[in-house]
Each structure stands twice: as structure tokens, then as C-alpha cells.
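seq as requested:
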Amino acid sequence: MRTITMAALLAGALLQSACSDRAAVAFDTSVDTRQLMNWMIDPSSKVVFGAVATIITEQGEQNVQPHTDEEWNHVRNNAVMVLEAGNLLMLEGRTRPSSVQDVADWNAKARAMSAAARTAIAATDVKDPEALFAASGDIYQTCTDCHAKYIFTAPPDDRQ
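C-alpha cells:
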């Protein structure tokens, strides 16, 4: 009985320690949502979007896709940034919607972007251009869905 009590006390102390350490973490969210979009998400997603394409010109058809390990790694690394940016968008302290329902929707959209990026990462791991193309379309759709509801639009310029 004494061993069970000691084990329970130890487990409780560890749990309390883990919870207090977690609560003590403060994230630096001084980079606002617009900056995060402009400096990280947009450039990284454009690498993923442009990695696989078919360009048709008068001279013929050109298929674009990564060929070397370095090219595949470059796309993968940018997909990882898109995935992690979904986590960054959900941090307390970063500009987000104010209502509880909208925050839940915002977070769901951020998680969807991360999930689509995870699929792109998997496609780069097996060097599958068709799967990467599909995943990049899914990332694009998650961005479009979010921007349709939450994008900030500047007021019109009256100085014309």
C-alpha cells in the first residue's frame, strides 16, 4: 500500500511539474499575421505551388518538376515551413478573429493548411510529382478558403 501511495504522489508531482512548465512558456508573437504571411507562408507556398507544372507555348509543352535530391529537398523544406506556419497562426497573441466560433474556424483552417502541407512533404519523400501537384492544389485551396473569410483588405486609396 505504501508503494502505491508513493507512486501516486510521485506521479502527481510529475504531472504538476509538467503542467506548470507548459503554462510558463511564452511565445514571441511580435511578427504579426500579415508579416508571417508575407515573409514565410507566401514565399514557401509559392515554392510548393511552382514545383510541378506543365507549360504550354507555341514551341511545345514543358513539364516542370524537381529532378535532383537537392530540388526535392528544397520543395520539402518549404512544405515543412507551410506546415509549421499553420501552428504559428494558432498561437495566442497573434492577430486572430475575436469570436470563439471564428477562432475555432481559424484554427481548423490553419490545421487544414498544415495537413495539406504534410501531404506535400510525403510526396517529396517518395519523389512523386503527381502527388505533389495534388497536394499543392490542396494547400492552395486551404489558403483560398481562409482568405475568403479572413483576409485583411486595406481601405481604398482616396488620393487619386
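The radius of gyration is 22 Å.
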